[in-house]
Specification:
Chain lengths: 142, 410
């Protein structure tokens, strides 16, 4: 299946992907309104090691430790996509302990949030990829 | 192939899903003495708080059994295994034949032998949905509740009933709360935050009861209306032990979850796990471990081949608004960071073995992965992740494999 893959040699560490992600999941139609003066909680986060930068988001693992560990069944794997039913999440954060990549985080309302490849916000291709100016993240089959 | 599963909770469900990964047609039958659709046991405290309801407590969707073509036999109890004939006898006298059997009978609350306990009228354990329904009937705004046990079950119960009762007293023999997952410092932080809601009597035990009076070992007498017993759990090994299977602390299995008896597997709270963080076998009565073992058992029962080499103790707990996560074993040198909440990392032989984190739990799973993988950490790498966990701690090759898909089998 298509996933967000990282070409870390191209990543500038500009964090535009983080902003595009936060905007795409904000339910606002205006980017300024969505992001200005706000602490953003994106589902993709840029990390660095020395002068190498790389954006980390859910890998949509075939063998997802988060789904296996979820105590409520809120996390499920549906057609390869790891998706969360926020209504069933009780904010225990077992998934955060399980995810080896640090790709799940608490949202502002307490339920967990994670990359769902922009399926739920109807973006078609993930907003982070669309907004990356350097093709340091791509959405493709590998 | 006829699969029979005794149990209907996380390990049992893991087994159903594991079997169906391999075998789409074999018959699967689940036996449970509880009448409910599979539900998540840890949610019972959330139920008392009104944060979930009976429907949302379902561990899998309502059509789970149908979708997986399995037949749940609810409200009956498995009483005897005849492994020579390959069947299980139920309390209803029915016999169910199997080709592969999974024991996923879980654990039950340990009831300590205390003088006078049998004369305490309103006493409850806190593990099953029926426990919470029975408890809820007795809760009133005037109830004085005494909880024996300041562990995960006792304190989640306290949180569940807080605001619905007059007072909550918790007594525990250990000198600190949550003694199985926190160190002294961490426990003190949590205790300080919740001691306005719960009265703690630590380092003390109940010597005897006289109806609604508890005589504590520190010489005090505690009056209560409702008693909750949460001093630990015991694996439900009897049905397996009685047919001659090998049992130590729990049912003994190999890495494939096979027991000492051919065609019988075990998974979850009822059996031992190999804890790779301290190289020892112990019972890890936690839901993620139960599911993982159940799935491994299911795959192997269906003819697949998979090993469950590494089980880790992991815990994630929210208590009165404070979040804490822990994993692994607390051995070796430790490094504390108290600038951002509380964090303590345990390192032995250059490998991360365990952690305790209160408040800033973000990306804690990266630490868990370092423990599970026994990843050697250079002092540079360690300094990099000490404050904030990051994939930077792993090798370049690992990072490329994960993020760039150089190995397609994520």
């Amino acid at each position: 299946m298509k996933r967000v893959y990282v070409n870390e040699q191209w990543c500038l560490g500009c964090r535009l992907c983080e902003y595009h992600c936060a905007f795409a999941n904000s339910k606002e139609s205006d980017m300024v309104k969505a992001l200005k003066d706000k602490k953003i909680h994106p589902n993709i986060r840029v990390e660095s090691k020395g002068n190498i930068n790389f954006a980390v988001s859910c890998r949509h693992c075939e063998d997802p430790l988060c789904v296996r560990g979820c105590i409520t069944g809120a996390l499920q794997r549906v057609n390869g996509l790891i998706t969360v039913d926020k209504d069933r999440c009780v904010h225990c954060y077992t998934c955060i302990v399980c995810c080896p990549y640090g790709a799940i985080s608490p949202s502002e309302d307490g339920a967990i949030q994670k990359c769902e490849l922009c399926i739920k916000n109807n973006n078609g291709i993930p907003a982070c990829v669309k907004g990356c100016i350097n093709q340091a993240i791509v959405y493709e089959e590998r | 192939m006829r699969y029979l599963i005794i149990g209907n909770s996380a390990a049992a469900i893991g087994a159903v899903e594991g079997i169906r990964e391999i075998d789409k047609v074999g018959s699967i039958c689940l036996i449970s003495d509880e009448m409910y659709h599979t539900y998540s046991r840890p949610l019972i405290s959330y139920y008392l708080q009104g944060k979930t309801d009976k429907d949302k407590m379902k561990y899998r969707d309502s059509d789970f059994y149908e979708k997986n073509s399995c037949q749940p036999m609810l409200g009956d109890t498995a009483v005897k295994i005849d492994h020579k004939k390959g069947n299980v006898i139920l309390e209803s006298k029915n016999k169910v034949a199997y080709d592969k059997l999974l024991i996923a009978t879980g654990s039950r609350a340990f009831i300590p032998p205390i003088d006078g306990l049998k004369n305490v009228k309103k006493k409850f354990t806190f593990m099953k949905f029926d426990d919470v329904l029975a408890l809820e009937k007795e809760l009133t705004q005037d109830s004085r509740v005494l909880i024996m046990g300041a562990g995960l079950i006792g304190l989640k119960c306290a949180e569940g009933i807080y605001g619905r009762v007059k007072s909550i007293d918790v007594v525990d023999l250990a000198p600190r709360i949550l003694s199985s997952i926190l160190d002294d410092e961490g426990a003190q932080i949590i205790k300080n935050r919740i001691c306005d809601k719960i009265n703690f009597k630590l380092g003390a035990k109940v010597d005897k009861f006289n109806h609604n009076l508890a005589y504590l070992s520190d010489g005090t007498i505690q009056e209560f209306d409702i008693l909750i017993i949460a001093v630990g759990v015991r694996p439900n090994i009897e049905i397996f032990a009685n047919c001659g299977g090998v049992v130590d602390k729990g049912i003994v299995t190999n890495e494939k979850q096979e027991t000492s008896i051919t065609n019988i597997y075990a998974a979850g709270d009822v059996c031992e796990s190999y804890d790779s963080s301290c190289d020892s076998r112990r019972i890890l009565a936690i839901l993620p471990n139960a599911y993982a073992q159940g799935r491994v058992a299911g795959i192997n029962m269906a003819g697949g081949s998979i090993s469950n080499k590494d089980s880790l103790p992991i815990n994630a707990l929210g208590l009165f608004g404070t979040h804490m996560v822990t994993a692994g074993s607390y051995a070796g040198d430790s490094f504390a960071d108290t600038k951002h909440g509380y964090k303590r990392l345990f390192i032995k032989d250059g490998i991360l073995r365990g952690y305790i984190i209160i408040d800033h739990i973000d990306k804690a799973g990266i630490y868990t992965a370092l423990i599970r993988d026994k990843a050697p950490l250079s002092s540079d790498d360690f300094n990099l992740i000490r404050v904030s966990p990051s994939l930077a701690a792993f090798s370049d090759a690992y990072r490329l494999r994960i993020l760039s898909g150089s190995d397609n089998n994520i």
